[in-house]
Design a protein that fits this description.
Blueprint: E1 10-14, H1 18-29, E2 39-44, H2 47-57, E3 64-69, H3 71-80, E4 83-86, H4 90-97, H5 101-104, E5 108-111, H6 118-121, E6 128-132, E7 142-148, H7 154-164, E8 168-172, H8 178-186, H9 188-205, H10 210-231, H11 235-241, H12 248-258, H13 261-279
Parallel strand pairs: 1-2, 1-4, 2-3, 4-5, 5-6, 7-8
Antiparallel strand pairs: 6-7
Helix pairs in contact: 8-13, 9-10
The chain binds NADP nicotinamide-adenine-dinucleotide phosphate (NAP).
The site of NADP nicotinamide-adenine-dinucleotide phosphate has 27 residues, from helix 1, strand 2 and helix 4.
Enzyme class: oxidoreductase
Catalytic activity: L-proline + NADP(+) = (S)-1-pyrroline-5-carboxylate + NADPH + 2 H(+)
Organism: Wickerhamomyces anomalus (strain ATCC 58044 / CBS 1984 / NCYC 433 / NRRL Y-366-8)
C-alpha cells in the first residue's frame, strides 16, 4: 500500500539504531499529530536489539508498536508499511534494501543514511526524502535537513514535515547541500562536544572543579546560541560587543586566532563533508 492522506497506515523503520531511535523517541514524545501512523514497526538485524527496543518503547505511546528482526520478518514489516524509514549504516543499506526491493515500489522512503543520493535510492522507489539529522533529536533538540525527490506530492511533503518536526528544528534544502548538512548537522554534535570539552578543561586548568566547570561551560554554550537566535544579531557583532578595548576577551580571542581555532573548525566541517560525499559511492 502507499500513503493516502486521512487513511490509517503503518510506518516501518528499517534499521532502528541510534538515529532511527532518535526519530522514534522524538516522535513518540510529541503530541499525537494529525498524520500519525496507526502502527510503527521498528526493524533491526538481531533478536537482542529487538528485545531492547520492545522494553524501551512498547508502552511509550498510544500508537501500536512492534519490533522485528531477521530478513523474513523485516520483509513482512516493509510489505505492511505505507511509509518506510531507512536508518542503516551506509555500507549496509544495499544489503538491507535489496531483499525488500519489490515491496518498496511506490512507497514513500525516508532515508536517514549519510552519503546515499536520491538517485541511488530511486532503484527502490521514486518517492524519496533524504533527511539528515543528529543525536540531540532524541531529546527533541535535534536539527533535520530535508531534501525531497521531485515526485513527492504536497500531502507527502506535509507528512514528512510532521513525522520529522518532533526532532526539533527542520530546514528544507536542495539535495546538493546534503553532504554539507551531513557534516554540519550530522557530525555537528561531535564537533560541539569537542569545543565543550575544551571549555570544561580550560576551567579545570584554571582551578574550577570538573562539575562546576561543566555546568558553566554548558550554560555558556546554550546561552550564547540562544542569544544569537533570540536577538537576530550577527554573531560577529555580538562578539565585538563583549570585547572591551585592551580587555580580557580580546586577549583570549587574539590567542585563539593565532592558534587557528576558527579556521580549524571550518576545515574540520569541510573534511567531514568531503568524507560524506564518498560514503554512498561503491
Ligand atoms: N549516529 C549519528 O549521530 C548519525 C547522525 C546522522 C546520520 N546518521 C546516519 O544514520 C544511519 C544509521 O547510523 P546509526 O549510528 O544509527 O547506526 P546504528 O546505531 O548502528 O544502527 C543501525 C541499525 O540498523 C540495524 N540493521 C543492520 N542491518 C539491518 C538489516 N539488514 N535490516 C534491518 N536493520 C538492520 C542494526 O540492527 P542491530 O542493532 O541488530 O545490529 C541497527 O539497529 C547511518 O547511515 C548514518 O550515516 C547517524
Amino acid at each position: 500500500m502507499s500513503y493516502k492522506k486521512g487513511e490509517a497506515y503503518t510506518l516501518t523503520i528499517l534499521g532502528a539504531g541510534t538515529i532511527g531511535q532518535a526519530l522514534l523517541s522524538a516522535y513518540l514524545a510529541s503530541e499525537k499529530a494529525e498524520a500519525a501512523p496507526s502502527k510503527i514497526i521498528a526493524c533491526v538485524r538481531s533478536e537482542e536489539s529487538a528485545k531492547k527496543l520492545e522494553t524501551q518503547y512498547s508502552s511509550a505511546s498510544s500508537i501500536q508498536f512492534e519490533t522485528s528482526f531477521g530478513e523474513e520478518s523485516n520483509n513482512k514489516a516493509v510489505e505492511e508499511a505505507a511509509v518506510v524509514v531507512i536508518g542503516t549504516k551506509p555500507y549496509i543499506t544495499e544489503a538491507a534494501l535489496s531483499p525488500v526491493k519489490d515491496k518498496l515500489q511506490g512507497k514513500l522512503l525516508i532515508s536517514m543514511v549519510a552519503g546515499w543520493t536520491i538517485e541511488q535510492f530511486q532503484t527502490y522507489s521514486s518517492k524519496i526524502s533524504r533527511v539528515m539529522t543528529n543525536t540531540p533529536a532524541k531529546y527533541q533538540y535535534g536539527t533535520a535537513v530535508i531534501a525531497n525527490s521531485s515526485d513527492i506530492t504536497e500531502d507527502e511533503r506535509q507528512l514528512i514535515l510532521e513525522l520529522v518536526s518532533p526532532i526539533g528544528k527542520v530546514v528544507e534544502l536542495p539535495e546538493k547541500n546534503m553532504d554539507a548538512a551531513t557534516a554540519l548537522v550530522g557530525s555537528g554534535p561531535a564537533f560541539v562536544l569537542s569545543m565543550l570539552e575544551g571549555l570544561v578543561e580550560s576551567g579545570i586548568s584554571l582551578g574550577i572543579p570538573f562539575k562546576e566547570s561543566l555546568e558553566c561551560s554548558i550554560k555558556v554554550m546554550e546561552g550564547t546560541a540562544k542569544m544569537v537566535e533570540l536577538s537576530g544579531t550577527h554573531p560577529g557583532e555580538l562578539k565585538h560587543k563583549v570585547c572591551t578595548p585592551g580587555g580580557t576577551t580580546i586577549a583570549g580571542l587574539v590567542e585563539m586566532e593565532s592558534q587557528g581555532v576558527k579556521s580549524g573548525i571550518i576545515k574540520g566541517v569541510q573534511a567531514a563533508a568531503h568524507r560524506a560525499s564518498e560514503l554512498g559511492k561503491k
